[in-house]
Design a protein that fits this description.
Layout lengths: L1 H12 L4 E5 L29 H6 L1 H13 L12 H11 L3 E6 L5 H5 L4 E3 L2 E8 L5 E3 H9 L15 E5 L8 H13 L2 E5 L10 H8 L5 E6 L6 H4 L2 E4 L2 H18 L1
Parallel strand pairs: 1-2, 1-7, 2-3, 7-8, 8-9
Antiparallel strand pairs: 4-5, 4-6
Helix pairs in contact: 1-10, 4-10, 7-8
This protein binds nicotinamide-adenine-dinucleotide.
Length: about 260
Amino acid sequence: MEDLIAKTAEVLATSNNAIALTGAGISTESGIPDFRSPGGLWTRVDPGEFSIDRFLQNPSRFWRMHLDLKSSGDFDLASADPNPAHYALARMEQMGILKCIITQNVDNLHQRAGSVEVVEFHGNLLRAACMKCRSLEPIEDVEARIESGESEAPRCRNCGGLLKPDAVFFGEAIPSRALMISQVQSQKCDVLIVVGTSLQVYPAAQIPLSVKLKHPPAVVVEVNREPSSLHEQVTDILMIGSAGDILSRLLEALETRVNLH
Ligand code: NAD
C-alpha cells in the first residue's frame, strides 16, 4: 500500500486539475450505512421506497419511513460528523491540489469538513424542497411539523406545494446545474480520485468512464473496500481498504512532499 500511496501523491502533486468523485462508502466511518455493503441500507429498506412514483403515490408513508429510519439510528444524517476521509479531501482543496468534489452523497459531510467546491450530484437530504416553487426548508423543520401532528405530508408555507427531501429519488433527473458543472470538471480534470462508490448508479458512474475516454485521459485513482464494478475499465491505481485510513496517509505523503519542495 505504501508504494501506491507514494505513487498517488506524486500524481496528485504534479496534477493541474485533480477532482474527486465520492459515494456512500466515504461516510460509513461516520456511522452512516452505505447501500450495497453487507448490512447496508438495502438489506433493511426496499430501494423502491426511494422512487419518485412511490413518493407521489403516498408521501405520508415515505415521511413515516424516513422518521422511523432516523429514530432507529439506521440513517440519522443530522447526528453524524465528518471523518478523517472528509477532512483529508478538504485539506487537499485548501492546499490547492483538489479543485472540486462531485459527491453522490446527500449527507452534507464534505461541506461540514470544510470543502468548498462541492457538487451535490444527488442533492442533499438535510433540506426539503417544495415540488412546485422549489423553495427550501431545513428537513428538521419538516420533521418537527410531522411529529407535532400538524401534517403527515407537510406542504410549502409559500405556495402549498408538496415538500419532498431535496435528494434525487429513483426516476428523477440529476439537478441540471450539478450535471453541467460535473461535465465541465470531468472534461478539465487530469486526475480523478474515486472514493467509496460501487459505481453502479448512473449517470454518476459515467464520470470515470468519460475521463478515461477523453484525450489525454485522466489518471483514475480508486479507494474502496471492494473494487468498484468499473475498476477493470477505468482504474489506474486501486487502493483497497478504509477511506479514512488511506486518505489520511495520502494527505500525510502530500504534506511531506510539499514541505520538502
Ligand atoms: P454503494 O453502497 O453502492 O457502494 C459503496 C462503496 O463504498 C462500496 O464499493 C464499498 O466497498 C465502499 N466502502 C464502504 N465503506 C467504505 C470505507 N469505509 N472505505 C472505503 N470504501 C468503503 O454506494 P454508492 O456507489 O455511493 O451508491 C449509493 C447511492 O446511495 C449514492 O447515489 C448516494 O446518493 C446514496 N447514499 C448516500 C449516502 C450518504 O449520503 N452518506 C448513504 C447511502 C446511500
